[in-house]
Design a protein that fits this description.
GO molecular function: methyltransferase activity
Largest sheet: 7 strands, mixed
Strand order of the largest sheet: 5-4-3-6-7-9-8
Strand content: 15-25%
CATH topology of the largest domain: Rossmann fold
Distance between the termini: 45 Å
Pfam families: Methyltransf_10
Low-confidence stretches: 115-145, 481-506
Helix content: 25-40%
Number of strands: 14
Protein name: S-adenosyl-L-methionine dependent methyltransferase
Oligomer: single chain
Mean pLDDT: 81
Shape: globular
Keywords: Methyltransferase, Transferase
Structural class: alpha/beta
InterPro entries: METTL16/RlmF, SAM-dependent_MTases_sf
Number of helices: 16
Radius of gyration: 26 Å
């Protein structure tokens, strides 16, 4: 479950929801002495009532669900939207001359368009109103005026391919971020019209859904991804039809009847497509490579309902020579879903977002965008002093266009961002600078190119001190564990300042006399921007920077 989800700390409280919404939900909630309140997820009416209740209670959206169309599970769909928020937030734009800080493609919103909107239209007596939004992030406290006062110039547009009758991603996206706008497509005219009725519902007026969401009816033979002057979107979303045939769908339904899985009711068009979801997403991949589309969208994304589709989609990406992709896994109770994102642009995602630690995905992960070292413990060295040494090394290169050192409040972690416009880390470049310095002349600084060669995020934090192994066997086992941890952990430990505190190690503990005990420091260099052909250059640059830090520590 995504940590920002309103359901991250606890699942929905069915008893409390039944009490708050007696007309809508109470009759579907069963109470037992052993397991408390529950809902029969095999009852389509119950799941539909629950989805409507959660949308209203937690997101301030009134959305009546049709009984002949797919009913979206809200926690799962919210996970996808929140993950896409992270993708846009972690897509760091290249530093430009005069920049004082690195900025994301779209920072996480500190305001929610949903907050306060659930009680916006008291004149609608037929709509039950919640007393408050439950379990939302504490920092998200805004009123409905957030969306009403949002300027168009501050917005981003998302393309939802196959939006369905609920237009669920548009509803959640607009509720969670007042800057989001949507283009929603579907080939089902009835679904489009029902989605339109949700957008224009008087209870949703405060969210301005009717003006923020554009619905487009498409024909099956038309491309999935539109082209033209209005085709630019920061990202796409999609929940493709799972099945390749009615027989496959029936087989899945028979299997689900053996356990407590939720009922799945929808039209054939929503659930079946030739070749199944892997063929559908494969078609999106092919279209994304075409001129006029690759440059119009930063991140193409899609959800996947079957694990077998993940490998097939990754193979398709690799066949198209797309190496810049990310995977994630959504877990909600007994249900697992996956999502894939890919880009033809130069934004690079950190490993903790693009390379999940699930062992089942190890063989299909993209290449790592980070390099790391653990520097041995030394007196008077902290993550801040180590980062200062790294910043000095970057500054001496002369070819660094801009360095942004993130502000820090303590010595536990330190982060900086840098832009390089030439291979200034190579030995030849260093020798040329040393020669120029000896001769009393300066090298010409490179002009700012349209795009940098590389952009980096460098971070340092305390690493766990290690004890010496007692035997060769223990040493070997420790090394094996470290090797595995190195594959999974570096980027997770490379959070920028202000990130989750559990990504930082504890500061050095003071000795008996009050001086801090020396501890090792982990340094991570992440690739944040650059085209794929510069991957080797990133590796060489990162290794050079880390090696020089190691040499400097040894000399110290």
């Amino acid at each position: 479950m995504h940590p920002r989800s309103p359901y991250a700390t606890a699942p929905p409280d069915f008893a409390a929801l039944a009490e708050a919404y007696p007309q809508k939900l109470a009759r579907f909630v069963k109470r037992g002495e052993r397991h408390g309140a529950s809902i029969d997820f095999q009852d389509a009416d119950a799941t539909r009532a629950l989805s409507e209740t959660l949308l209203l209670h937690d997101f301030g959206v009134t959305a009546i669900q049709r009984d002949d169309r797919l009913c979206p599970p809200i926690p799962n769909r919210a996970n996808y939207v929140l993950w896409l928020q992270d993708v846009l937030n972690e897509s760091v734009q290249p530093l430009q001359p005069g920049d004082t800080a690195a900025s994301p493609l779209l920072a996480l919103s500190t305001e929610s368009a949903a907050a306060g909107s659930a009680d916006a239209n008291d004149e609608d007596a037929n709509v039950e109103r919640p007393s408050k939004r439950a379990r939302v992030a504490e920092e998200v406290e805004s009123t409905r005026e957030t969306a009403a006062g949002q300027e168009e110039g501050e917005s981003v547009r998302i393309l939802d391919v196959g939006t369905g009758a609920s237009a669920i991603y548009a509803l959640l996206g607009c509720a969670l971020d007042a800057r989001w706008r949507f283009t929603c497509t579907d080939i089902d005219a009835e679904s489009i019209e029902h989605a339109r009725s949700i957008l224009h519902h008087p209870a949703n007026k405060a969210l301005r859904l009717a003006s923020r969401v554009e619905l487009q009816l498409r024909r099956p033979e038309q491309p999935l991804l539109p082209v033209g002057p209005d085709a630019a979107h920061v990202a796409t979303m999609c929940n493709p039809p799972f099945y390749s045939s009615a027989a496959e769908m029936q087989e899945s339904a028979d299997f689900k009847q053996q356990g407590p899985s939720a009922v799945c009711r929808g039209t054939d068009g929503e659930m079946i497509t030739q070749g199944g979801e892997e063929a559908f997403v494969g078609r999106m991949i092919d279209e994304s490579c075409e001129a006029g589309r690759a440059e119009n969208v930063v991140w193409f994304t899609s959800m996947l309902g079957k694990f077998s589709s993940v490998g097939a989609v990754v193979n398709k990406l690799r066949k198209q020579e797309i190496r810049n992709y990310a995977l994630t896994e959504f877990v909600q109770g007994r249900t697992r879903r996956w999502a894939v994102a890919w880009s033809h642009q130069a934004y690079r995602l950190p490993d903790h977002l693009a390379r999940p630690s699930a062992p089942s995905l190890a063989r299909v992960l993209a290449e790592s965008n980070s390099r790391s070292r653990v520097l041995p413990a030394a007196e008077e060295h902290t993550p801040r002093t180590v980062m200062a040494a790294l910043q000095a090394d970057l500054a001496q290169m002369g070819h660094v266009l801009q360095i942004d050192a993130a502000s820090q409040d303590d010595d536990a972690a330190s982060t900086l961002f840098a832009r390089l416009d030439s291979e200034a880390w190579t030995r030849g470049a260093r020798r040329a600078r040393a020669k120029a310095l000896k001769e009393g002349r300066s090298l010409d600084a490179p002009s700012a190119s349209a795009e940098p060669l590389l952009c980096l995020r460098c971070s340092a934090q305390w690493a766990q001190a290690r004890r010496e192994p007692k035997s060769a066997a223990e040493a070997s086992a420790t090394q094996d564990a470290d090797d595995e941890a190195e594959k999974q952990a570096p980027a997770q430990e490379a959070q920028p300042a202000g990130g989750d505190t559990d990504m930082r190690s504890d500061p050095a503990q003071p000795q008996e006399g009050g001086a801090p005990t020396p501890r090792p420091v982990r340094v991570v260099v992440e690739w944040t921007f650059g085209c794929e052909k510069q991957r080797a250059a990133f590796a060489a640059c990162a290794e050079s920077l880390l090696r020089r830090l190691e040499e400097g520590r040894k000399q110290a």
